[in-house]
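Work Package 3 (structural annotation) set out to generate three-dimensional models for the target panel prioritized at the project kickoff. During this period the team completed the workflow that converts sequence records into discrete structure tokens, so that structures can be stored uniformly alongside our sequence database. As a representative example, we reproduce one entry of 174 residues exactly as it appears in the project archive.
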Amino acid sequence: MALPLLGLGAAIVAAYAGGKISENKQKSAGIVGAFPGETKLQITPVDGAILICGVYGFFEHSGIWCDGKIVELKGNGLVRAISPERFVGERSGDTIYIAGDASGNPFVGAEAMQRAVAEVYQYYDYDVIKCNCHQFSWRCVSGSTEVLTRFSELNAKLSSYFSSPVYWYPMSSC
């Protein structure tokens, strides 16, 4: 019985270490200026802003801010608009973070809100690798249907698109 638990523990440690290495690479490459939890400056979301919250300390879930709601691709494939409380309440994180520049200005794709709202109530064949929340958020921002698997890929796309390192700021109360 102890052997499977040791294997699970080793896998968790390896995943954590791999995440830290990835974060260091993203910072040194100028892709990310501040990861979630690294800055105390709170900013207010604006329509079309890109948001994330934590999931079990190992993953991030993303969505788009639209008129006081967050449009997300849920794990069952439904695109829906939900309250900020529900966005974090259905996950393990307790803080919503907004992507922005070094001055605290949220990143907003020109048509992100319109694209997100147009997708509400649509169903997709959700897949953690091929059709996930990060790919949905990126499609809303850019209009591109590229496959994004990981949070680091979303960071790289956002940094390139907005020509700036990504800073993840805690959301202020609205």
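Residues 109 and 136 are 13 Å apart (CA to CA).
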